[in-house]
Specification:
Elements (H helix, E strand, L loop, with lengths): L1 H8 L1 E7 L3 H12 L4 E5 L12 E2 L1 H9 L10 E3 L1 E6 L2 E6 L5 E3 L2 H15 L2 E4 L3 E4 L3 E4 L2 E10 L6 H5 L5 E15 L6 E7 L2 E9 L2 E8 L6 H4 L4 H7 L3 E2 L4 E10 L3 E2 L2 E3 L14 H18 L3 H26 L1 H13 L1 H11 L5 H18 L1
Helix pairs in contact: 2-4, 2-8, 3-8, 8-9, 9-10, 10-11, 10-12, 11-12
The structure holds flavin-adenine dinucleotide (FAD).
Length: 376
């Protein structure tokens, strides 16, 4: 099967290694920019993966730019984020638009359909095993390409082979995901904090929610974690859990560089922020658009700069959230500061989703937040 597949590819103008959300978005964007595009993935669609399944408003805007249309019944809207810690609770609406929760398989199928419609050539069930100056090896056969976009996930084989596996930093946590059959009780994504990590709830349809757990401890299992989140446990008591519990690593990784010659990394292969930020998909979709623009301009240097800009804010938020995770005392202070001035949370969320720039967030807000933190 692999042989037949690689014979039929022969060569490609743009070869995308990995057909997850990042690879398919990169393929669609490159196709929209006028390139001939081929995607190769070792799995079969629709591909499932442990994920909180929330897409922030900026990610939805990028999806619209890629021509992906989300139909009625395929997703559930959420209007903002609500945090819980012990007795404290703070929430804010997104300043512009809503986010969407949707099953990972639904999102993947939508991207596959859009890629097909755009004229991308898709090859499933084919593993890329090597890299050469001309292109890649697939099951012992070589496929030459002009551009190689590596979207093969956080454990990227091609990143290492291309010599781009130089991490500035990397931290890992452990993630799980389970669906529950229950009508969503809230139109917020709810993030519950405890000393065991975070559990967050995303509505994905009128009668289903997705619950994700992210923890530092490799030995914690779903059943061990639930008692650490009593308010959520009470909500889930009568809900029917789905049979599949999926796990995946949540990696915060920053690479020294994300392109070299004709090779570019995109999505988690190009570095990532902690899953609790809920930004992984949005970042990947925005990178995909920036990458196609850089290819059209003929230089991947432009992508390197754009990539750094896209990752900057989510990385800051990831650092803050990881500090809140690691230091319960600091977390309590942050919660006290946010509850005493709820508008700060709204401004932080606006910053997080790109609705306001760091410059607009401003010195005054930073100073005021710092003061509230100290006072708390
Ligand atoms: C627990 C958890 C919760 C999360 N929650 C959220 C959330 O709520 N919102 C959000 O935006 N993000 C979330 N994320 C992050 C999000 O899931 C990732 O950002 C996203 O999956 C990255 O997509 P990707 O395409 O880069 O990688 P992947 O989805 O991993 O895709 C990589 C693809 O490459 C293929 N592949 C790998 N190696 C090869 C090879 N050698 N040959 C051929 N194919 C290959 C794989 O089959 C796969 O299809 C979460 C992550 C975790 C772990």
């Amino acid at each position: 099967m692999v042989e037949a597949m690689s014979k039929s590819i022969g060569q490609a103008e743009v070869l995308v290694a990995g057909g997850g959300p990042a690879g398919l978005a990169a393929a669609i964007a490159a196709r929209q920019a006028g390139f001939e595009v081929t995607v190769v993935d070792c799995a079969q669609p629709p591909i499932d993966k442990a994920c909180g399944e929330g897409i922030m408003p900026d990610g939805l805007a990028a999806l619209r730019q890629l021509g992906v249309r989300i139909g009625p019944g395929q997703a559930a809207q959420f209007r903002g984020i609500r945090f819980f810690n012990d007795q404290d609770q703070v929430e804010a609406d997104f300043p512009h638009g809503a986010g969407y929760g949707m099953r990972r398989t639904v999102l993947h199928q939508l991207l596959v359909d859009r890629a097909t419609e755009a004229g991308v050539s898709l090859h499933w069930g084919a593993r890329i095993t090597g890299l050469s100056a001309q292109g890649v090896a697939i099951g012992g056969q070589h496929v030459a390409c002009r551009w190689l976009l590596c979207a093969d996930g956080h454990n990227s084989l091609l990143r290492g082979l291309a010599g781009l596996d130089v991490s500035r930093s990397a931290l890992r946590r452990f993630g799980f995901r389970r669906h529950y059959s229950v009508a969503p009780w809230s139109d917020f994504v709810e993030v519950h904090w405890s000393n065991c990590g975070q559990m967050y709830v995303t509505p994905v349809s009128d009668n289903e929610i997705c619950v994700a757990l992210i923890t530092r401890s490799p030995s914690v299992r779903w059943e061990d974690a639930l008692p650490h989140f009593p308010a959520l446990g009470a909500r889930l008591k009568d809900a029917q859990p789905g049979k599949r519990l999926l796990g995946a690593l949540s990696i915060s990784r920053r690479l020294a560089t994300v392109q070299l010659g004709k090779v570019a990394l995109v999505g988690e292969a190009s570095g990532s922020v902690d899953a609790v930020t809920g930004q992984g998909l949005s970042i990947a979709f925005r990178q995909a658009i920036a990458l196609a623009e850089a290819m059209r301009g003929g230089s991947l240097q432009q992508y390197e700069v754009a990539h750094r800009g896209i990752a900057r804010l989510p990385r800051m938020m990831s650092t803050l959230m990881l500090a809140m995770d690691a230091h319960p005392h600091f977390r309590r202070r942050v919660f006290r500061a946010l509850t005493s001035e709820p508008d700060s949370f709204r401004r932080l969320l606006a910053l997080h989703t790109g609705a306001i720039s760091p410059l607009k967030f401003g010195f005054r807000e930073t100073l005021s937040m710092g003061w509230h933190l100290l006072a708390a």
